[in-house]
Amino acid sequence: xxxxxxxxxxxxxxxxxxxxLLWAIRENAGLTGTKFGCGKGLCGACTVHVDGxxxxxxxxxxxxxxxxxxxxxxxxxxxxxxxLQQAWIEHAVPQCGYCQSGMLMAAAGFLATNTDPSDADIDxxxxxxxxxxxxxxxxxxxxxxxTA
Length: 148
Fold this sequence. Notes:
Blueprint (H helix, E strand, L loop, with lengths): L1 E5 L2 E5 L7 H8 L18 E4 L2 E4 L12 E3 L1 H4 L6 H8 L9 H12 L7 H7 L9 H13 L1
Parallel strand pairs: 1-5
Antiparallel strand pairs: 1-2, 3-4, 3-5
Helix pairs in contact: 3-6
């Protein structure tokens, strides 16, 4: 049994300790906002925060979050009131939307450490892949959220 906090609530999952955190979140905790993309930690669709650090959950064994706090996109807000969610809506960021939960979580982690980002800062820090290519809108939304 592996216990951790998920979006502020205590959870325990009875799974193989090597099971990726992504699948424990989706299959065992029933939160499907975190997406599977590449399975190799490259695309960022599965980005969550572990003790405040943005991490690719497909590459994190669930055993590594024992006793830690995990935040998913569902934990940003339950009513789309988070400043990034509002900026995403204002700037019409999503097209297909598949990458958006991971992109939002990467952006939230980034803005926690950089509150006045330049385009270059955003481009260097946000390495998530958007197949629709909405990077200019993502950049604009991150900047808007930084000033909100």
